[in-house]
Design a protein that fits this description.
The protein is mostly helical. It has 14 helices and three strands. It folds into two domains: 141 residues, no CATH class; 104 residues, Orthogonal Bundle (Arc Repressor Mutant, subunit A). The radius of gyration is 36 Å and the shape is rod-shaped.
Length: 277
């Protein structure tokens, strides 16, 4: 049986011949002619026209010609059912129908651009749709890394290496010195001044402010100081008989109400409830 359509095929006019050869007629012949000659040449060659307006084998509503062939010949192959929305999406620029539609359009457009002979393009299209059919039959649920144990292992090793690099990242000397300075000042109840600390460390204040969180629990300078003060306050509450007002003073808070507010924000409890416990 002969089939005829307009020249320069891209998607439907390659997918339909593949479907015909695969499921309908293995000996089918296909003709490509200029659009305005399809009907006259169909009569002359005794061929069935497809994928042009006004013939039986064409688009209907939201469906493309491939859909009509599947329905007309009652093709129930599961892989074809998977392929149909991909082809429809690519042929009608509705790439939301299937994630593969955009890729099929790109490959089809590239083939048509590279291959100027329609019949050579048809043969190459058969290879393309054979591959798509094999994927839909055997690999539809499989991801790229699942198909290659080596690549999957390589990905796991690379991810592990990244995690190790993050956890074993060397702490710079200035950060170690700053931790000691902060602890000393916390213990002595000094007032913190980022500019003075920068001068002592001989580091630009802007650089110190920008890099601080990378080495101090992802907290900025003020947040980290409050965290250390609260930790010291908890230690004093649990191990001494100081009043809460005295502890507030010893940990650098201006008054007990401020101390209570920051303490509850960090721990979810009031200092008094912790002391009772």
């Amino acid at each position: 049986m002969k089939w005829i359509t307009r020249e320069r095929p891209k998607i439907d006019r390659l997918a339909c011949p593949w479907l015909i050869r695969k499921f309908i007629d293995q000996e089918a012949e296909f003709l490509y002619v200029p659009f305005d000659l399809v009907i006259s040449k169909a009569l002359e060659e005794d061929a069935t026209p497809y994928d042009i307006p006004g013939v039986e084998f064409t688009h209907y509503e939201q469906e493309c010609t491939f859909d009509y062939f599947v329905r007309k010949y009652r093709i129930e192959d599961p892989a074809v059912k998977i392929m149909a929305p991909i082809i429809r999406g690519a042929d009608t620029d509705r790439h939301d129908l299937a994630p593969e539609s955009a890729g099929l359009w790109a490959l089809s457009a590239g083939l048509a651009f590279n291959i100027k002979d329609d019949y050579q393009l048809l043969e190459t299209g058969f290879v393309l749709y054979d591959a798509l059919y094999s994927w839909a039959t055997h690999l539809y649920q499989q991801k790229h890394l699942q198909s290659s144990p080596f690549e999957n292992l390589l990905r796991q090793v690379y991810s592990k290496l990244q995690e190790t690099e993050k956890t074993e990242k060397k702490t710079p000397q200035w950060a170690r010195e700053l931790k000691e300075m902060i602890q000393d000042q916390i213990d002595d109840n000094f007032v913190f001044d980022l500019k003075d600390i920068s001068n002592e460390l001989q580091i630009n204040p802007s650089y110190l402010s920008r890099e601080f969180s990378k080495h101090f629990d992802n907290l900025n300078f003020g947040e980290y100081i409050r965290k250390i003060r609260i930790e010291k306050a908890i230690h004093l509450i649990e191990t001494t008989s100081y009043s809460l007002t005295e502890i507030a003073y010893l940990t650098g808070f201006s008054d007990q109400s401020h101390f209570n507010r920051i303490f509850k924000k960090h721990t979810g409890k009031n200092p008094s409830s912790l002391r009772k416990k």
